[in-house]
Amino acid sequence: MAAPRTLAAARRAAAAAPRGWRGAGGGAGGGTGPGRSRLYEHVREGLSARPQLEVSALSERELERRRGPLRGGDLREIVQTWSRLGEVRATIARLEAEKGRVAQSVRALMAAHDKETAEALPVYAALRARGRQVRLQLQALLAEEAALDERFYLKALQLPNRTHPEAPVGDESQARVLEVVGEKPAFDFKPKGHLELGEGLDIIRQRRLSHISGHRSYYLCGAGTLLQHALVRFAMDKLLSKGFLPMTVPDLLRGAVFEGCGMQPNATPSPVYNIDPSRFEDLCLAGTSEVGIAGYFMDHAVRLEDLPIRVVCSSTCYRTETDTGREPWGLYRVHQFTKVEMFGVTAAESGDESEALLAEFLALQKEIFSELGLHYRVLDMPTQELGLPAYRKFDIEAWMPGRGKYGEISSTSNCTDYQSRRLNIMYSDGAGQLRHAHTVNGTACAVSRMLIALLECNQLPDGRVRVPPALQPFVGQAVLTPPTAPLLRYIGPNQPRGGREVP
């Protein structure tokens, strides 16, 4: 399963894929479930180069530890399928060569004799019979090849990345605390939660929205909106000063790009919003700009001397939050939020380049959170928390006094060549030789969760909230103060019983 080594070879590989194939589970944009791969459909329709998957580097033990959709026995099946596929393709190549020789012999015979004489010769009849036999064999083998190819990719595309040897084994309870930064804020009063604070300041609204925008939605207004813009500006300015390339990406993307990033738009239930396929074929709302940035590099090569490439993007993120029983109120689990994302593309000459960029992204996250005065801890995430694409992942959790516990505010992952092998993200040297790049991603600022930590950690006894000095130039004030009266008073039909006034 070697990757194409030149740009021309990559183009030929893409062009070789037959068009019009819709795959198991229905047409592109319709159907879900394990029998369908949008990325495989994308390839078979000739829209992208064939994924160059690396199966030999994985072990059954790694699959068991990751607890993903596949187990050790699936890996054995994948390897067996690939082995048989290789045998079939070798036989096809041999028969295609023989078919060519038979055709050449027939042409030579016809050139040496007139048509009637040639067709009367026994050798002519033998050649024609062998030609028919070869064509029938090829017909059967090509059908088997197509079935094996589909079986291989539908399984292999669900394989996870390799796992860093230092990653803890197990579920989230096994996360290893690497560092604790700052001190927990001390209060001589009972701290409020961010929603109570936000409502008191009239900057967050989450009540009476089910008939407007559904559950897990919210409004920011006034200083809440200013805080959101301040956080985005602060993070963007920080990363632009470090040489990051700013980018704006689509919010709507093909399911194939999600799958190439290691996400599962066809899962049941799906963490991804799928747009109605009867109207818009195979489009999903992005839960992170990582998908859009990866799509920007899909089927493209960059020069070695231009690496690493560091990209920053601020975007709206959409999450289904299918586990709706957890934290139904507040900003911790919401369907839509703003996030500033870091994404990097590195070379793989030594194999250490992506690890170095992962460390750089983590250092930048710590710099941002420390300058905002947060108390946080850095976690080395265990195998069952890596998802499919991550080789290693670090999470940062900030202390949230209103919740009485730490809450995740960022993660950063080294995906090595997992995404690049699926999305055909390459880099080339001066001779035009292509190699798979490595990709790294990280959260610079997830606004909704940052608002939780900032409001809860900077609250005062009277409901006011201090603005961190780093954000004051953007917000225009040092302290947020509750209004003398709320902007709105509810006059709708669902008034509470007892006559109590509702703001």
UniProtKB/TrEMBL annotation:
EC number(s) recorded for this UniProt protein: 6.1.1.11
Pathway recorded for this protein: Aminoacyl-tRNA biosynthesis; selenocysteinyl-tRNA(Sec) biosynthesis; L-seryl-tRNA(Sec) from L-serine and tRNA(Sec): step 1/1
Binding annotation for ATP: R319, T320, E321, V334, H335, Q336, F337, E408, I409, S410, S411
Location(s) in or outside the cell: Mitochondrion matrix
Positions with biased composition (Low complexity): 1-21
Residue(s) at site: Important for serine binding: T443
Catalytic activity: tRNA(Sec) + L-serine + ATP = L-seryl-tRNA(Sec) + AMP + diphosphate + H(+); tRNA(Ser) + L-serine + ATP = L-seryl-tRNA(Ser) + AMP + diphosphate + H(+)
Source domain of life: Eukaryota
GO molecular function: ATP binding; serine-tRNA ligase activity
One CC-aspect GO term: mitochondrial matrix
Positions that bind L-serine: T288, R319, E341, N441
GO biological process: seryl-tRNA aminoacylation
PANTHER family linked to this entry: SERYL-TRNA SYNTHETASE
Protein name per its UniProtKB record: Serine--tRNA ligase, mitochondrial
Source organism: Accipiter nisus
Biological classification of the source: Eukaryota, Metazoa, Chordata, Craniata, Vertebrata
